[in-house]
């Protein structure tokens, strides 16, 4: 085969490879949306992070503003220390509230930020003090069952009381009627 | 008693033979690496081999990628719609192709399409004493014949795998969106939200580079080591496909377990 033809085809081949890689990056991957550049880091302590994973999204008002960095365990306070890498473009007040939410019923967990009203903003290395833990399904069900059970007890007591009085009434009325 | 003795000596001979071949393969790999200067100085040698191993494999790679993507979308949709999450079909197709099927199926097809050609060519060169003739002329056959083919395989494999992944995703898109009627926006946005550039795509490319090294090296070694007869070359070609496929699948497990763990 002609030399130049081979060169041409190999050139087309390599160019196609790069084009495919580029389109994978842009169209399939999240290179365009991921925060490759400037972020600042804040930490937040949670008593329970549930199933939160590193690289989970950090959202505010539903918009991704950053990613979870690493998650450590503080052996002194017995809390989880979660570091959040937030995009430099977004500033949050010092009294921002950090919650752990679940996307959908069984979806992945993410950190939701709710901005407070403080004048000064969070800086690199700051700590978010107001946090709310992840909802653990077992705990929730346990609480629900407990409430239901106590509610049930109240009801049975009341029901017993009412039937008792009802029985008295029943006892009383036929006799009365007969008497009359 | 003699039977037992013969059995053990057969086992020993088999082990020694396998070990010898492993050592010879590693030695050839090392020799290829240290004498690969010429394949970059005279880059045209490598380009020629990229044409034969890469460009000529394009048709089979792209057509099978298209069908693999389409089947993935069909099968995935069938299961996902039972759980009411059929818009996750884009993620399923993309992750399956980017992480696993792209590199692995490309490597298997590459072993069948290009690896066998390399083995047969080098085996026949050896059988017709072309390699010995080169040595007589003080031309190193490893630098002149083996190394350009090795680098061509290493260059071609990631490109082929990337193309496979892209065309597979297009095939999946064609089935999921126009044929089944999944929402196009959900298809792409779910995909983009869940496929990571470094964690998924670059790891897939890394896998395909490793497979490129393994497949090409196995094909080269089998050809270089083939008995210089018609039968020897044919056996070596068969062994290339079998060994490459097993090596790719085994390496895939090892690489995946490292990549997932990190």
From TrEMBL, chain A:
<keyword id="KW-0472">Membrane</keyword>
<dbReference type="InterPro" id="IPR003399">
    <property type="entry name" value="Mce/MlaD"/>
</dbReference>
<dbReference type="GO" id="GO:0005548">
    <property type="term" value="F:phospholipid transporter activity"/>
</dbReference>
<feature type="transmembrane region" description="Helical">
    <location>
        <begin position="6"/>
        <end position="25"/>
    </location>
</feature>
<keyword id="KW-0812">Transmembrane</keyword>
<keyword id="KW-1133">Transmembrane helix</keyword>
<feature type="domain" description="Mce/MlaD">
    <location>
        <begin position="39"/>
        <end position="116"/>
    </location>
</feature>
<dbReference type="Pfam" id="PF02470">
    <property type="entry name" value="MlaD"/>
</dbReference>
<dbReference type="GO" id="GO:0005543">
    <property type="term" value="F:phospholipid binding"/>
</dbReference>
<dbReference type="InterPro" id="IPR030970">
    <property type="entry name" value="ABC_MlaD"/>
</dbReference>
<protein>
    <submittedName>
        <fullName>Phospholipid/cholesterol/gamma-HCH transport system substrate-binding protein</fullName>
    </submittedName>
</protein>
<dbReference type="InterPro" id="IPR052336">
    <property type="entry name" value="MlaD_Phospholipid_Transporter"/>
</dbReference>
TrEMBL record, chain B:
<feature type="transmembrane region" description="Helical">
    <location>
        <begin position="241"/>
        <end position="261"/>
    </location>
</feature>
<keyword id="KW-1133">Transmembrane helix</keyword>
<feature type="transmembrane region" description="Helical">
    <location>
        <begin position="89"/>
        <end position="111"/>
    </location>
</feature>
<comment type="function">
    <text>Part of the ABC transporter complex MlaFEDB, which is involved in a phospholipid transport pathway that maintains lipid asymmetry in the outer membrane by retrograde trafficking of phospholipids from the outer membrane to the inner membrane. Probably responsible for the translocation of the substrate across the membrane.</text>
</comment>
<dbReference type="Pfam" id="PF02405">
    <property type="entry name" value="MlaE"/>
</dbReference>
<keyword id="KW-0997">Cell inner membrane</keyword>
<keyword id="KW-0813">Transport</keyword>
<keyword id="KW-1003">Cell membrane</keyword>
<feature type="transmembrane region" description="Helical">
    <location>
        <begin position="50"/>
        <end position="77"/>
    </location>
</feature>
<feature type="transmembrane region" description="Helical">
    <location>
        <begin position="150"/>
        <end position="181"/>
    </location>
</feature>
<dbReference type="InterPro" id="IPR003453">
    <property type="entry name" value="ABC_MlaE_roteobac"/>
</dbReference>
<dbReference type="GO" id="GO:0005548">
    <property type="term" value="F:phospholipid transporter activity"/>
</dbReference>
<feature type="transmembrane region" description="Helical">
    <location>
        <begin position="201"/>
        <end position="221"/>
    </location>
</feature>
<dbReference type="InterPro" id="IPR053408">
    <property type="entry name" value="MlaE_Permease"/>
</dbReference>
<dbReference type="InterPro" id="IPR030802">
    <property type="entry name" value="Permease_MalE"/>
</dbReference>
<keyword id="KW-0812">Transmembrane</keyword>
<keyword id="KW-0472">Membrane</keyword>
<comment type="similarity">
    <text>Belongs to the MlaE permease family.</text>
</comment>
<protein>
    <recommendedName>
        <fullName>Intermembrane phospholipid transport system permease protein MlaE</fullName>
    </recommendedName>
</protein>
<dbReference type="GO" id="GO:0043190">
    <property type="term" value="C:ATP-binding cassette (ABC) transporter complex"/>
</dbReference>
<comment type="subunit">
    <text>The complex is composed of two ATP-binding proteins (MlaF), two transmembrane proteins (MlaE), two cytoplasmic solute-binding proteins (MlaB) and six periplasmic solute-binding proteins (MlaD).</text>
</comment>
